């Protein structure tokens, strides 16, 4: 019996018209990405996952996409690409790979996509606890953000792997360094890339759909993690850092759009030393003047969008929380600009 006939006999666990969640896994070379994927493929988890695996080398790299059943058996090997960089130089091939996967829609529950350590953005970033401190110190000739720092800044979940190779003091310092870059992402610490699959699947990190009862909205994440303004943060940080701002009241979306466009598109907003504030990522939960729902705003580099989630409770205090991740962050400047977006008392 042919492989194609075998695939046709596999029961459809996901309706063909349902969206298939995709999770991107990235991290520096040797951080444990492939080990994590091998663990996922061998664990008895009852999920069917299509995995695009990548190996980066000097010669031609071979990437294999596998459809894996609930018992971990391999049904088919059916994809081969020629380059290791998904988001940039082989973007078209990467899109084609996902298109090929979707022709078999209904045969799997999830897609996991492993990128090389040179690709971004990353949804889940694997960190090598032993080598990450040195990697964070590496300087690029053009003074741009190095790969590890950028991956941390763009992550929704950061897995600190190989924690058995460092001391408690070293691990605590690494946590501090990561939180300085990205205070929003969830941190997971592990050895041998062992993680709870329920944590890393169904992230819905960039979903524009309304939140539902079975998914945690961004506003819930803020509440659960106790976000507060970063009172300890330096006024200006020329490295990649995080700034969290909170303001009570309602936001005028027209004014907020003007602020975000000046910040992200036009690069007009400078810090007190005249340097352009560079935003890698932005997330926020807002109360807008237009209606009584929570609104989530997200941005990666110059792209940003909103989506509407749950209504505010009648007795709930309207609170706006926004997290900036980037370079040349200036608290006073961003605080002033964000405050200007609030509805005036006379409105």
UniProtKB/TrEMBL annotation:
UniProt keyword annotation of Cytoplasm present: no
SMART domains: CobW_C
UniProt GO cellular component terms: cytoplasm
CobW C-terminal domain sequence ranges: 240-342
Listed CDD domains: CobW-like
Transmembrane segments: none
Keyword Nuclease: no
UniProt xrefs under Pfam families: cobW (PF02492), CobW_C (PF07683)
InterPro entries associated with the record: CobW-likC_sf, CobW-like_C, CobW/HypB/UreG_nucleotide-bd, P-loop_NTPase, Zinc-reg_GTPase_activator
Catalytic reactions on record: GTP + H2O = GDP + phosphate + H(+)
A molecular function (GO) term: hydrolase activity
Keywords tagged on the record: Chaperone, GTP-binding, Hydrolase, Nucleotide-binding, Zinc
Family, similarity comment: Belongs to the SIMIBI class G3E GTPase family. ZNG1 subfamily.
Name of the protein: CobW C-terminal domain-containing protein
UniProt source species: Potamilus streckersoni
